[in-house]
């Protein structure tokens, strides 16, 4: 395949990560590892470029379109450049009842951006909309990068956001 | 797929009060289709996997709380189904309303209009007035290359095209990008769809999203008449429909024949019709006077041709396209025989004639086309199979996907798009085949297979040491119990062999004193040379074919096209129709005789080839040449050929002598869209990546022969 050489765009760490996931599925079912592979790439690179997705396809020996399909489908995959930190505020039903909408308003005001935007300094990206993150017992909550912060108040939000580099 | 490995057990179900029998595990829609009970559908297609994503085929099943999709519901004993109950119809109407939400109302300017599954079903299940008042979405179009036009706003996301790529073509180029209302069928990174069967997504698309680009906006479905035809380029003999308006072929679509092409057509068969209307079609007979070809009437040209043939007498030779019909080949062979010459040949790209007496009476596949997919072990020797015979490659692909061990032996590596057990690349194919001894993987696979074959491809048959190569392949087949098969050139090599368009054999393989074969005719041109449907510089193995025309005393070109060396050196040009303008018969590699009638009005003053040859026969007092129809010629040809049993067993032959000197063995592969005069003139195919890769260079340009 044309992309065979492209898999060198992936770091050794990402390739090892993909190998781990590939082994969890039967032979010839490497397509099942696409989500995990894209997560690993995005974690390292920030967002998914067509080149990176092609590299994943080449590494998993899949037609590139099958990787693009997955990358374009799931909202947790970013296909355009975003800020260094990704903030997602839950406004689904439990968090909403506990004040999730107010938390989101506070975050917007503090960062001066709308959901789906990145602060001009490239520091923080506010995710457009996030469905339930399964932390209903601790609502309102938000996820910063991969970390959950629960029982939020405007003060704790300030503290968390100020602590980001 | 459904049908394989199932028991013969039968169960009964009830549909709309009617009792039907079915095999357990069959999908409901297969059972109702077989019984002629119509259930609307978009995403279901019998040659593709089941997606169940359009929801149009919802039906009511007793004791089930919700309507079920008939395409994905296996039948169970005693199941009671209603396809027309209020509940089923409500569900179908609701689905239709959703499908129409974002579908544009541009049917009047859509090529699919009049033959659109969405239009038809909207008529049956749609509301007269839409309740949807919001804006419709618009989707940017894709550039999928020169064959398929796109209007992606019309797409209803049935994913038939996506599944076709994955399951039939073997390379998924299209996919569903995005989700929900933003989902689009796309290649993501703009690229053309480059497979040799890609045109089939036009037929698969139930709406006007993917359409025929060369045909775009040039006719309406209901204006055209439909005529049967046979694929004029390869040895599958795909069944086709020609759609004709005002006597002109506007497009070509496949005609279903499960035994040959299933529901598919190769792009070459589908788009080559463009060549019929090439600029260099000859529209009037021409005779050379004072060094220039000048138009004349048919009587004058035919009289001149008859004179030339009489003058040539026993020193007349004929080169026949492997795409010529049985009728044309038979009449020309009879005509030459009448003149006392046996120098007629259709094996134009062959280089090694040493063992021609060991050739089978007709080179055949050794099995039916459909049986190829039942092979469990296969070695293909010397073939770029996807380019030589796309639909045969498709059958091999199906076999491979069912677990067959498929091996290739070639002098270079090709991309097959299916699981290949092994690709042997050997600069010298003869040494390559001789290396497959006992203990070798290939040998073992062929031996272990219950249904194994060794196929000799077109590269093998063009090989300068074909005799040794075939000897090796036949030996291997014999040692392993595999069948030996041939993949003949063109649409009718099998038919032309059967009816005696050969220098060493008459009809039915009757031996006769050998005339000059194609190589000799070109290296030592006869005093009169007849060309039937060929362009010597592109269709022959001999690199000096073009200059043979200069050296031949007289050249009679019976051809639809006039270019190159023929334009420079032909003395008499008799314009004849392409496959679409003449009645005729092709015999495919499985030995099926398939006749067709003329579908299109002949271009200019051209005539069907068989009629031209019949008149020449009359002028030369060929006995019995009083045929009124192509069918009468065919009857005579069949009677002469008899019914030889196909038999590829290699006659025990003495060791062939040394191979011909200076026979070039490079460039044995002829690119897919360079194969014959018609396809070389098909503009859209030439714009595809395969067409551009063919480069417009003659297939034998690299040969440095004597």
User: How widely separated are the two ends of chain A?
Assistant: 41 Å
> If strands are numbered along the chain, what order do they take across the biggest sheet of chain B?
14-13-24-23-22-15-16
Rounded to the nearest angstrom, the radius of gyration of chain B is 27 Å
How many β-strand stretches of chain B?
26
Q: Biggest β-sheet of chain B: count, sense, barrel?
A: 7 strands, mixed
Assembly category: heterodimer
Low-confidence parts of chain A: 1-5
Order of neighbouring strands in the sheet with most strands of chain A: 2-1-3-4
Report mean pLDDT of chain B, rounded to a whole number: 92
The N- to C-terminal Cα distance of chain B equals 54 Å
Structural class from helices and strands of chain A? alpha+beta
Describe the structure.
The complex is a heterodimer of chains A (165) and B (706). With 165 residues, chain A is α+β, with helices and mostly antiparallel strands. Chain A contains seven helices and four strands; from the N terminus they run H-H-H-H-E-H-H-E-E-E-H. Chain A folds into two domains: 72 residues, Arc Repressor Mutant, subunit A; 78 residues, Glutaredoxin, CATH 3.40.30. A four-stranded mixed sheet of chain A has the order 2-1-3-4, with helices on one face. Chain B has 706 residues and is α/β, with parallel strands linked by helices. Chain B is built from 24 helices and 26 strands. Chain B has a seven-stranded mixed sheet with strand order 14-13-24-23-22-15-16. In chain B, strand 10 and strand 11 form a beta hairpin. The two termini of chain B are 54 Å apart. The chains are: A alpha+beta (165), B alpha/beta (706). At the A-B interface, helix 4 of A face strand 7 of B.
């Amino acid at each position: 395949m044309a992309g065979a050489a492209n898999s060198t765009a992936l770091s050794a760490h990402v390739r090892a990560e993909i190998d781990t996931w590939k082994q969890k599925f039967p032979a010839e079912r490497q397509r099942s590892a696409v989500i995990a592979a894209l997560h690993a790439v995005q974690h390292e690179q920030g967002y998914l470029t067509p080149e990176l997705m092609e590299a994943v396809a080449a590494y998993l020996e899949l037609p590139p379109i099958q990787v693009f399909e997955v990358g374009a489908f799931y909202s947790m995959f970013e296909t355009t450049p975003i800020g260094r930190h990704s903030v997602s505020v839950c406004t689904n039903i439990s968090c909403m009842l506990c004040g999730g909408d107010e938390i989101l308003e506070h975050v917007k005001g503090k960062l001066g951006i709308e959901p789906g935007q990145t602060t001009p300094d490239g520091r923080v990206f506010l995710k457009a909309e996030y469905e339930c993150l399964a932390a209903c017992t601790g609502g309102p909550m938000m996820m910063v990068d991969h970390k959950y912060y629960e029982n939020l108040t405007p003060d704790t939000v300030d503290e968390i956001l100020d602590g980001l580099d | 797929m459904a049908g394989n490995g199932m028991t013969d057990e039968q169960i009964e179900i009830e549909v709309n009060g009617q009792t039907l029998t079915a095999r357990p595990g069959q999908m409901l829609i297969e059972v109702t289709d077989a019984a002629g009970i119509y259930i609307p559908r978009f995403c279901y297609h019998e040659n593709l996997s089941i997606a169940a994503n359009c929801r149009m085929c919802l039906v009511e099943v007793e004791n089930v709380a919700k309507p079920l999709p008939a395409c994905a519901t296996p039948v169970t004993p005693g199941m009671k189904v209603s396809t027309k109950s209020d509940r089923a119809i409500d569900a179908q109407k609701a689905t239709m309303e959703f499908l129409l939400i974002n579908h544009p109302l541009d049917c009047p300017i859509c090529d699919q209009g009049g033959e659109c599954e969405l239009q038809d079903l909207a008529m049956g299940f749609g509301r007269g007035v839409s309740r949807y008042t919001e804006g419709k979405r618009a989707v940017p179009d894709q550039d999928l290359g020169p064959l398929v036009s796109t209007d992606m706003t019309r797409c209803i996301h049935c994913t038939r095209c996506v599944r076709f790529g994955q399951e039939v073509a073997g390379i998924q180029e299209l996919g569903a990008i995005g989700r929900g209302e933003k989902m689009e069928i796309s290649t993501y990174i703009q690229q053309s769809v480059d497979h040799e069967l890609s045109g089939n997504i036009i037929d698969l698309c139930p709406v006007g999203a993917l359409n025929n680009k060369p045909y775009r906006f040039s006719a309406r479905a209901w204006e055209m008449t439909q005529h049967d035809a046979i694929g004029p380029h390869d040895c599958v003999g795909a069944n086709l429909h020609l759609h004709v308006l005002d006597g002109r072929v506007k497009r070509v679509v496949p005609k279903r024949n499960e035994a040959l092409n299933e529901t598919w057509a190769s792009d070459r068969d589908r788009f080559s019709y463009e060549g019929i209307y090439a600029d260099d079609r000859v529209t009037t007979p021409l005779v050379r006077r004072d060094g220039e070809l000048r138009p004349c009437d048919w009587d004058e040209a035919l009289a001149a041709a008859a004179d030339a043939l009489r003058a040539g007498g026993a020193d007349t030779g004929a080169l026949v396209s492997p795409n010529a019909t049985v009728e044309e080949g038979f009449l020309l062979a009879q005509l030459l025989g009448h003149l006392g010459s046996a120098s007629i040949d259709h094996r134009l790209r062959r280089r090694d004639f040493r063992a021609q007496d060991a050739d089978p009476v007709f080179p055949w596949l050794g099995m039916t086309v459909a049986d190829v997919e039942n092979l469990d072990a296969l070695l293909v020797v010397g073939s770029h199979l996807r380019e030589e015979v796309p639909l045969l490659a498709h059958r091999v692909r199906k076999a491979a996907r069912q677990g067959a061990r498929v091996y290739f032996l070639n002098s270079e590596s090709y991309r097959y798009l299916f699981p290949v057990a092994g690709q042997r690349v050997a600069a010298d194919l003869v040494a390559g085949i001789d290396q497959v001894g006992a203990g070798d993987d290939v040998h073992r696979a062929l031996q272990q297979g219950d249904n194994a074959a060794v196929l000799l491809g077109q590269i093998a048959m063009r090989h300068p040491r074909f005799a040794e190569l075939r000897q090796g392949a036949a030996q291997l087949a014999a040692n392993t119990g595999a069948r030996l098969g041939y993949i003949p050139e063109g649409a009718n090599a099998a038919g032309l062999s059967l009816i005696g368009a050969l220098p060493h054999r008459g009809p039915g393989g009757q031996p006769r004193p050998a005339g000059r074969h194609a190589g000799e005719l070109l290296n030592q041109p006869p005093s009169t040379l007849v060309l039937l449907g060929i362009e010597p510089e592109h269709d022959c193995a001999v690199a000096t074919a073009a200059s043979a025309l200069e050296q031949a005393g007289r050249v009679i070109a019976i051809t639809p096209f006039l270019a190159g060396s023929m334009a420079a050196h032909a003395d008499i040009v008799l314009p004849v129709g392409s496959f679409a303008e003449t009645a005729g018969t092709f015999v495919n590699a499985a030995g099926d005789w398939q006749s067709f009638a003329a579908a299109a009005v002949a271009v200019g003053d051209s005539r069907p080839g068989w009629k031209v040859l019949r008149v020449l026969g009359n002028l030369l007092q060929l006995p019995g040449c009083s045929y009124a129809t192509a069918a009468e010629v065919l009857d005579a040809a069949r009677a002469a050929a008899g019914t030889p049993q196909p038999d590829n067993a290699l006659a025990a032959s003495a060791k062939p002598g040394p191979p011909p000197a200076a026979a070039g063995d490079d460039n044995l592969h002829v690119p897919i869209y360079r194969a014959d005069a018609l396809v070389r003139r098909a503009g859209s195919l030439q714009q595809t990546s395969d067409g551009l890769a063919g480069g417009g260079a003659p297939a034998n340009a690299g040969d440095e022969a004597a």
